[in-house]
Design goal:
By secondary structure, the protein is of the alpha/beta class. Helices cover 23% and strands 22% of the residues.
Length: 487
């Protein structure tokens, strides 16, 4: 075993630069610095693969070295506050099979703009009328997958089904999400890590915990409220009260599992812990709209942890839906990279589609099933496609997927001033359409990921090349067909 030598979150420097604080309310890129520039040296955070699950003796030695065990579950653990020599000592223990430095992944944001829309005339809608939402005319995405046909057939989702959103949190008080979020099973698992910021003109290492930021700016809110915007948008696409914008369902319960911070840092260990937390707390579906491609050279051992976590969830009947990523990469031939999480065992990997043109924000929309220009692809990697929006030419407006915008966002501050919907795009937006469809099927098919996946694939619209296509997989999601004929 090679000793762990990297301090913490080796990819942190580049991912911290991908956060945002747009000055204007609409069509602003979410890529601007928030003043944090790099990981702080000298403090370690490591992930351990254990030979047993007790961890008692391990915890004692970690404590004597000045560190701590942040969590231990499913034969894995995260150890923090260890220096290099302490990590090397822990790595030599007989009950530690593997010890690797934690790394930072980030929300995979496409290189484009977004749209923020104020919604002033709020009319409460019955859960059975999602097509009456204020922005439904703009929701080409729901019509493209036949969600309206599923609603007409009485498929609105069940409160007995819970989809866990592993993301940046959820604004659980937004009108489209109020009452849908299970606060008892929601959690902030983003943890604490060192960053470098500028204090009195000097780079200074400080420990960052997002819960402290929540307490400072929103003292009445739970730690898992969304300071970014991403998790709220994703959640409301799965399930929404459909006052501002419709979700695929209006009855499915949601759980917020914060594994990403508003700095756009998603510690790998937090994601692993989030998958295990969801599986242990009765998740029916997990949605992972997270980027996360790491280079195999030097990071190949991380695959062991991915396999352990996702196998653990699947064995407990959890269906896991993931986003393919927004790099326009052929995942079948990118031999130097591991696409977490499309390469994980038993997941449903989702590519994105979207219109190539539209006459106005409300349409009509042209070619809604076009493959999104940014979407990763690959015949072996992609299982199916779903609406994610498209980046179009200057002569053709970008097409967006609209959903709730977090009223606790530090990244899109205009959303704190009222009720807003955000138009965003990415495979992050495509995945929750599939999670919503999976949530509709759980009461009918059961908590059986293999059977649920097979049924989804049998009911897709076969696009592109017949059979399996590198950009559409087996085809584009069809929710109406998926629920047709099922009890």
């Amino acid at each position: 075993m090679h000793p762990a030598t990297v301090a913490i979150l080796s990819a942190l420097a580049w991912s911290l630069a991908a956060c945002a604080d747009p000055a204007a309310p609409t069509t602003q890129s979410p890529n601007a610095s928030l003043g944090v520039s790099a990981a702080a040296p000298g403090m370690g955070r490591y992930i351990a693969l254990l030979a047993n699950t007790s961890g008692g003796a391990l915890a004692e030695e970690v404590a004597t070295l000045g560190g701590r065990i942040d969590w231990i579950a499913a034969g894995m653990a995260t150890l923090s506050l260890l220096d290099e020599s302490g990590a090397e000592r822990i790595a030599r223990r007989s009950d530690v099979r593997l010890l690797v430095p934690d790394v930072a992944l980030s929300l995979d944001l496409p290189p484009s703009v977004f749209d923020v829309v104020p919604v002033d005339a709020l009319q409460p809608q019955a859960p059975a009328t999602p097509g009456s939402s204020a922005l439904y005319a703009r929701q080409w995405n729901m019509r493209a997958i036949g969600a309206d046909k599923a609603w007409a057939a009485g498929a609105f989702g069940s409160a007995t089904v819970t989809t866990f959103i592993l993301d940046s949190g959820i604004d659980y008080e937004h009108v489209d999400l109020l009452g849908l979020v299970d606060e008892g099973r929601s959690a902030d698992l983003s943890g604490t890590f060192p960053v470098v910021t500028t204090i009195s003109g000097r780079p200074t290492a400080v420990m960052f915990t997002e819960a402290d930021t929540v307490a400072r700016y929103f003292p009445t809110r739970k730690p898992y409220t969304d300071l970014f915007y991403h998790g709220t948008h994703v959640a409301a696409t799965v399930s929404s009260n459909a006052i501002v914008a419709a979700g695929v369902t209006s009855g499915t319960r949601l759980a917020a599992v914060k594994v990403c911070t508003y700095l756009n840092v998603c510690p790998f260990s937090s994601v692993l812990r989030g998958v295990i937390h969801a599986a242990d707390h009765g998740a029916d579906v997990i949605n992972l709209s997270l980027g996360g491609t790491f280079h195999k050279p030097g990071n190949g051992r991380l695959v062991h942890f991915v396999n352990r976590a996702f196998t653990y969830a699947r064995a407990r009947g959890v269906t896991v839906v993931v986003a393919a990523g927004n790099d326009g990469t052929d995942l079948d031939h990118d031999v130097a990279a591991y696409s977490a999480y499309c390469d994980a065992p038993g997941v449903i990997c989702t590519a994105a589609t979207g219109p190539t043109n539209q006459a106005s924000a409300d349409g009509p929309f042209t070619n809604v099933d076009a493959s999104a220009s940014y979407s990763n692809f690959g015949r072996a990697a992609i299982d199916l496609a779903a609406p994610g929006g498209n980046i179009n030419t200057p002569a053709a407006p970008n097409s967006f997927v609209y959903a709730a915008c977090s009223q606790t966002s530090l990244v899109v501050p205009i959303c704190r001033t009222g009720v807003f919907a955000m138009g965003s795009l990415g495979t992050s937006m495509a995945a929750p359409h599939v999670s919503g469809a999976a949530s509709l099927l759980v009461p009918r098919i059961g908590r059986n990921p293999a059977a649920l996946d097979a049924h989804l694939q049998r009911t897709l619209d076969d696009l592109g090349q017949p059979g399996t296509d590198p950009r559409y997989g087996k085809g584009r999601l069809n929710v109406g067909r998926a629920v047709a004929g099922l009890p």
